[in-house]
Amino acid sequence: MSEVWNNVYKSDSAFFGEEPSNFALLCFNHMKTNNIAKVLELGAGHGRDTIFFTTNGIEVEALDYSVIAVEILDKIAKEKRLPIKPQFFDVKNPLPFPDCYFDAVYSHMLLNMRFSLEDLHLVFSEISRVLKPKGLNFFSVRNHNDNSYCKGIEIDKGIYDIEGFQIRFFTEKEINDLLAAERFEILWIKEEYEEPVTLYLVSSKKP
Ligand SMILES: C[S@@+](CC[C@H](N)C(=O)[O-])C[C@H]1O[C@@H](n2cnc3c(N)ncnc32)[C@H](O)[C@@H]1O
């Protein structure tokens, strides 16, 4: 599936635009008030949010399984002389960092890709492992109010193929269950329409 994303980024190296997402702006405010200094970003893409966090004084480790996305972000980081070293990495594997290493983990529209529930449990347990105690886990996922929900072909329970993109649409209960399994406390869940998708924006805290 990384080929789908490689093709997206080959055809448009700034597919998601150059400005940070609204979710990144929202999370940044919470990062500042919680003295967050070191962040892991999963599924960073071409790095619109990575660049925003880094230029605002946060140290970010950025991972993505699209080799093209990693090359684009690496090039921008070098041109702008930013201390970002993006890594090619599939988050279906254990994260390449020690325990209790990050103040926060951030992902925007990654966890609604084609992950089985088993994969998602592994991702959340790995996020918990690399977070410091009381560390924050920010993520956004597409939800059942999304215009594309139930469109396309259902290829797995709750996962639809929509023009080649394989997407899971979350209920609030699924989010609660995944977080509860790792004993994360939910700080907030907000809903946002970010054209053309409808998202749950989630902030949660490790015990
Ligand atoms: C919807 S895009 C969002 C990109 C970025 N977060 C943004 O908002 O600009 C999802 C990203 O997740 C990456 N991705 C999908 N599955 C992945 C996986 N298993 N491991 C790592 N990255 C993955 C894709 O390559 C893509 O860059």
Give keywords.
single chain, 207 residues, Rossmann fold, seven-stranded mixed sheet, three-stranded antiparallel sheet, binds S-adenosylmethionine
Summarize the structure.
With 207 residues, the chain is an alpha/beta fold. The chain has helices at 2-11, 22-33, 48-55, 67-79, 117-130, 172-181, and strands at 38-42, 59-64, 87-88, 102-108, 131-142, 153-156, 159-162, 165-168, 185-194, 197-205.
Describe the 3D structure:
The protein contains 6 helices and 10 strands; from the N terminus they run H-H-E-H-E-H-E-E-H-E-E-E-E-H-E-E. By secondary structure, the chain is of the alpha/beta class. It has one domain: Rossmann fold, CATH 3.40.50. The chain has a 7-stranded mixed β-sheet with strand order 3-2-1-4-5-10-9, sandwiched between helices. A 3-stranded antiparallel β-sheet has the order 6-7-8, with no helix packed on it. Helix 5 links the parallel strand 4 and strand 5. Helix 1 crosses helix 4. It is globular, with a radius of gyration of 16 Å. The termini are far apart. The model has no long low-confidence stretch (mean pLDDT 97).
Enter the CATH topology name: Rossmann fold
Question: Would you report the number of β strands?
Answer: 10
Main sheet summary: 7 strands, mixed
Number of helices: 6
Work out the count of structural domains: 1
Order of helices and strands: HHEHEHEEHEEEEHEE
**Integer-rounded radius of gyration:** 16 Å
Instruction: Give the strand order of the largest sheet, numbering strands 1, 2, ... along the chain.
Output: 3-2-1-4-5-10-9
In helices, the fraction of residues equals 25-40%
Specify the CATH class. Alpha Beta
Rounded mean pLDDT is 97
The secondary structure category is alpha/beta
Content of β-strand? 25-35%
Low-confidence stretches: none
Bound molecules: S-adenosylmethionine
How far the N terminus sits from the C terminus, by CA atoms, comes to 34 Å
Global shape: globular
Using the 3D structure, state the CATH architecture.
Answer: 3-Layer(aba) Sandwich
Output the CATH homologous superfamily. Answer: Vaccinia Virus protein VP39
